[in-house]
Amino acid sequence: MSNRVPGWSLAWSEEFDGDAGSPPDPGTWRMETGNGGWGNEELQYYTDSGENAFLDGGGNLAIVVRQPEPAVREDRYGGCGYTSARVISQGRMALRYGLVEARIRIPDGRGIWPAFWMLGQDIGEKGWPQCGEVDIMEILGQDPAVLHATVHGPGYSGAGGVHTSRRARASLADGFHVYSLAWEPGRFRWFLDGQLYASMTPRNVRRKPWVFDHDFFLVINVAVGGTWPGNPDPSLTFPRTMLIDYVRHYTASGTG
To answer: What residues are annotated to the active site?
Structure first.
């Protein structure tokens, strides 16, 4: 039972227990790879390397942003100045409704863009944004006290996504925090450390289609640069590390 939001029973969890240096469970997660800006002019190359995503041996998944040497960038990463990881559950574990949450310690720094989010499992057939996207947590490293939550769908995607935010009392990079989404038919509610701060229903998408009543998969990543966060400050030091203590899915008590 969640001790943060009453009325939910644990249905599935990923605790990231395992030996230091191990990859995340391949039965649930895979590492999406490549560059090309990912639609936002981002600067990182997502790798499947154990240098960018690994269990730390202390019960966390570490996603590490690194800055390879110039010769390595050209030889292995298409000239990208940074490497990182994008860990997804597509085709391996999907969710529909319930409480989805993760306990995460984010990295900060200008141009660093950590995120925990979901995409529609039908993205391969329908494409984006028709599949739907729900951003549970996005934070810009230059303003790490502000938590962003957004939904994207047909007619409200990219910069036109339906967005809300919450300013915490202190930097969210100072420790672990729990980022949660309560997902019901026709309603989303976002929580920070168990405290409700935003909700959305079909009325919020301005008479556009509500494309969130089907299966979604999970995405955890740290991007670098791009049209929203801007580029890293030249003085920023690397590596920058995000730690994920757990990801959990709860169902409403009594529903199984």
So the answer is: 133, 138
